[in-house]
Each structure stands twice: as C-alpha cells, then as structure tokens.
Design goal:
Blueprint: H1 2-14, E1 22-26, H2 28-40, E2 47-51, H3 54-60, E3 65-70, E4 73-80, E5 85-88, H4 98-115, H5 117-125, H6 133-152, H7 159-162, H8 168-179, H9 188-205, H10 211-223, H11 236-242, E6 254-256, E7 259-261, E8 264-265, E9 274-276, H12 278-299
Parallel strand pairs: 1-2, 2-5
Antiparallel strand pairs: 3-4, 6-9, 7-8
Helix pairs in contact: 2-3, 3-4, 4-5, 4-6, 4-9, 8-9, 8-11, 9-10, 9-12
Length: 300
C-alpha cells in the first residue's frame, strides 16, 4: 500500500486527465499495481499492459483482477478492471530465470488440471525445455484461449471464478506466510502448485476423486519443477487461519472448487463452489506434508 500511495501522489501532482493512460511495463506485481492505479484514478482511466514475465502473460496481465496486498493477507485491496490493451512477446522470456518461467507455467498447469487434459499433456511434453520460444508461444495461446471465456462470461456460472482460482485458497495462505517471514518464501505460481495438490487431497478425502486424479496433480507439478508440499515450517493451523482472509471464505468456512478427474471440476446443480470443513483442510495438509517424509524414507 505504501507504493500505491506513493504512485498516486506522484501521478496526481504531475497532473492527469480522464484520457491519460497508465502503462505497466513489467511482471505480475507491476501489472497488478498499475491495474489498481488505473481503476482508482478518476474512477478509471485507460490502461495498457506490456507484460514481461511468464506469470504476467499467463495470468496477471490478462486477468481483470487488479490488487495489492494488505498486512492481513494477499490481494485484499483492488478492483475488477480490464486493460484496454495487452501486449505479449514470449521471446522476452528467454532472458528470464528458469524458476521465473516455471512459476508462470504453474497457472497453465492449474487450467489443465481443472479445465483441459489436452493443455496439461502439451505442458508436460515440453516440461524439459521450458524456455523454448515456440513452446512458450503455443502454451500462452492455449492458456489464454481457456482463460479468456472465464473473464468475458464471468457472471454466467461460478465455474468462471472457481476454475481460475483453483488451488488459490491454500496457495495464497502459503504464499503470504512465506512473504511475512514465517515460512519458506514462495513465488505465486509455486504456492498455487502446492494449493492445487492440497485441493486434490481435499477432493479425495471427500470422496470426489480417486487416487489417479491426486497423483496426476503431484506428477504434473513435480515434472514441471514446481513444489508440491506445504513447507514444513508453516504450521498447519497457521495455513488454515490465513485462509480466513481469502475472498471466498464464507460462513466461517473456506469455499473452493474441486476436481473430480483431470480436466473436470466437481459440480452440483450447476454450482462449482463448496464450503470445506476446517477438519478436512487440516487433514489434507497433514496428508500432503506426510508425502515429504515418505519420499525421504524411500530415498534412504
């Protein structure tokens, strides 16, 4: 918020009009703060995203959600505000670290798991060479083609909210705890990868999916060089508590979408959002963490 305040002060003192345009040049964080600025100044001015990271190209810049963090949690202040134009050039990603590229790909894997087995297969086929420009261009095109309708038809079904937000309830909690210094520091996509795996565990506990679906989650993220386990130094109860600040937390319960199989989200009478008991979330986190201990035992 300090940066947001500083930027609004500078912009207003320099002078703008309703026809001024905010241009964001950078990754997801820059795209988000500029989006919030554009939505707030004069109640909305034009905005252009020139996004330079994989996370920006696959998620932040193309989304309507513009937000900044608050001391209580992730993305608590913001607005729904689409960019006037979005400029994407995948060739700039070859200058990024491999970790940064994989961080963005996590959002594409998420869409594959809850939306498109074809996308997931394509991602995994190229997971060994994630900085290949042709691979990245096709991956971005395929992901945007899936994500765009969830934005333009947002009000038609809560699938259009639960799918893009899959894995984010737990993921945002883990990301924020790391950011606050009480756990391992995670990039957004890394936290979402963990959140998706925990969500799969929740679905299995509730009898909504089988073992194959859960293993597909772990396999997809692991093969893509992403973490799958809640950091050991993040207490289960701390993760659960932080989920209170998730925007889908309702009636004293976390609300989330869940997968029944790869590419298919659970629904009941057209509803894709389900309240999850705290006990189930804690059990899922414990099962998730236990995998790390099992892996260490197997390696020994």
């Amino acid at each position: 918020m300090e940066n947001f305040q500083m930027l609004t002060d500078k912009i207003l003192r320099n002078g703008i009009t309703k026809n001024s345009c905010i241009i964001s040049l950078g990754g997801g964080v820059v795209n988000n703060i500029c989006g919030f600025l554009a939505s707030a100044l004069y109640r909305g001015v034009p905005m252009i995203h020139i996004t330079t990271t994989c996370m920006g190209m696959l998620d932040a810049a193309i989304d309507f959600k513009q937000a900044v963090n608050h001391c209580c949690g992730k993305n608590l202040l913001g607005a729904y505000y689409p960019a006037s134009q979005i400029i994407i050039d995948p060739t700039v990603l070859v200058t990024q670290s491999e970790r940064a590229v994989r961080n963005g790909i996590a959002e594409a894997i998420k869409h594959g798991l809850c939306h498109s087995p074809d996308l997931l297969n394509f991602i995994l086929e190229g997971a060994h060479d994630v900085k290949n420009p042709e691979y990245l261009e096709n991956l971005i095109k395929m992901t945007v083609a899936l994500k765009a309708p969830t934005l333009t038809h947002y009000d038609e079904s809560n699938f259009n909210e639960m799918c893009p937000q899959y894995g984010h309830s737990v993921g945002h909690a883990c990301e924020f705890l790391g950011f606050k210094g009480s756990g391992v520091a995670l990039l957004h996509g890394e936290a979402v990868a963990i959140g998706c795996c925990v969500s799969a565990e929740i679905s299995r506990i509730m009898g909504l999916c089988d073992d194959a679906c859960v293993e597909a989650h772990y396999d997809a993220f692991a093969r893509s060089g992403l973490p799958t386990i809640v950091p050991e130094d993040q207490a289960d109860e701390d993760v659960l508590y932080q989920m209170v600040y998730d925007k889908h937390y309702e009636k004293k319960s976390a609300t989330m979408g869940l997968c029944t199989s790869v590419g298919v989200m659970h629904q009941k009478d057209g509803n894709f959002a389900f309240e999850i008991d705290d006990a189930i979330i804690l059990e899922a986190i414990r099962i998730n963490k236990a995998r790390a201990h099992a892996d260490m035992t197997d390696n020994n």
